[in-house]
Amino acid sequence: MKPIRMRAAVVSAALAAMLVATGTGTAQGQAPTAARVAVPPADHNCLSPDGTNLNTFLGISERIIGPPACREAFVGEQWVRSFPSWGTAASGDRARYPRGYTPARFNPMDDFVSKFLGIRVVNDIGTAQEQSRTFGPETIRRFAVFEGIPFAYFGSLPLSPLSAGAHTSTVFMRLSAEHCDGLTRRSDLSCLPAGEFPYTGDTPVRFFPRSS
């Protein structure tokens, strides 16, 4: 499967808060620009842009929400939040790091895994309906190599259904210490900060009532 690589430029918590406060982010309750007639497929197969069945690839039986083609679900069904993979240099021998950075593990992917504490999924952030749930290291569902680069692929545990209508879903990642992927010497492109930080933007999702 061709990975969707999340590269630096991770949005800061302050910027995320500013977007919500000023209304420039996507928020629940905004008037739709056009009537929606599409509904989720009856099956739970989520296909990535290259055609890979993500449910099979990640070993997930519930509906996956996250990729652009997989952002709709039915009211009453549980769902799993997926989000962009993280890739690193193949080995410590080939790793390139920003000046002053020392990894905790020799191989960059091992370094990432040793610092990965999990994620927090926040639905309808900045609204009266905001709710969040925290998951641990089990969020890493699979490792795979693409064009010589190892990637970690993610998926939360099942989340409770949301009400009918438009929502947003935001993923925050949590690391015990700074991690750099070993692919470049630029910290703005290759490093993730310690603590909790936004890993995705406010992804729009929609839940549909089942037809009678």
What structural class is derived from the secondary structure elements? alpha+beta
The beta-strand count equals 13
Assembly state (oligomeric): single chain
Structural shape: globular
Tell me the series of helices and strands, N- to C-terminal.
Answer: HHEEEEHEEEEEEHEEE
Helical amount among residues, as a percent range? 10-25%
Question: Layout of SSEs?
Answer:
Blueprint: H1 13-22, H2 54-58, E1 63-65, E2 72-74, E3 79-81, E4 86-87, H3 108-115, E5 116-123, E6 131-135, E7 140-146, E8 149-154, E9 165-175, E10 179-180, H4 187-190, E11 191-192, E12 195-198, E13 203-208
Parallel strand pairs: 1-3, 2-13
Antiparallel strand pairs: 4-8, 5-6, 5-9, 7-8, 9-12, 9-13, 10-11
Question: Would you mind describing this structure in some detail?
Answer:
By secondary structure, the protein is of the alpha+beta class. It is 13% helix and 29% strand. The strands form 4 sheets. Strands 2, 5, 6, 9, 12 and 13 form a 6-stranded mixed β-sheet that branches. Strands 4-8-7 form a 3-stranded antiparallel β-sheet, with no helix packed on it. A two-stranded parallel ribbon has the order 1-3.
